[in-house]
Amino acid sequence: MRRPRYFTPKEVSLHNTVKDIWVSYLGKVYDLTPLLEEYKGDVLLKPIAECAGKDISHWFDPKTKDILTHVDPMTGCIKYYTPMGRIIHVPPPCPRTDWANDFGKPWWKDNRYEVGLLSAKTRWIRIINTLTSQEQRLEVCSEETLDEILQRYLCYNSHAASYTWKHNGINLDMSKTLRENSIPEEDEFYCGSPDCNLFSPSICLYFNDDLTEL
Question: For the whole model, what pTM was predicted?
Answer without folding.
Answer: 0.88
